[in-house]
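Pasting as-is:
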Amino acid sequence: MAPPQDHLIIVGYGVTGRNVSRAARSAGIPYVIIEMNPETVRLERARGEAIYFGDATSPEILEHANLREARIVVVAINDPAATRRISELARKLNPRVHIIVRTRYLTELESLYSLGADEVVPEEFETSVEIFTRVLRRYLVPKGDIERFIQEVRADSYSMLRGLRKDFETLEDLRYYLRDVDISIIRLEPGAPLAGKTLADMALRKRHGITVLAVRRDSQMLFNPEPDMRLHGGDLLIVLGAPERLAAGGFLFAGEKRA
């Protein structure tokens, strides 16, 4: 089984790893999994998963997964020491790879960033988001208001957490400098107000405060689209704007709801 290139490497096949692989498969993203449980590897390989048995703290295992040609590494294991070792090793083997790490505690953030992680997702923080979301639902707060609040909290809090880093050399750190701006990927649904229209027709930037940075259509990526470019249902739009403006303009990208 030869590993792909420009792919995603998932370390750990617990709940997080399974969900990441499921999302990658649905989106057509090539990926491989590294897992230390031999029975899990046997079962999942029999089901057709691209999964390797091994310890990702070993350079040989990461090389076998073709780390040098990977685009992203997701570390989703419960061993803090191993997580730190994998982050450091992956950064040394591939300085260009984007490393996303799950950790249980906020206290782990500083060491993981210093070892080379690009993004760290602390379970403590995400659990708090899930809890207050459920509280707001019980108080019958509208769904749109809840989603807008979540976007604002995540934008503010993750910008603050990223402040632990000593350097800001990657594009993803743009959000640190632009704290009130979010970058999102939105699928333009058929029948949406934007479908079939040009950017000039809708005056997205002027009327709604939303800038389209790029459009992915089929396998083609179209950067810095011209105002007269006509958008199609199914396009993936990479957009920039304040979280509240993106939330308020969501209807522009959504198709008609069927009863």
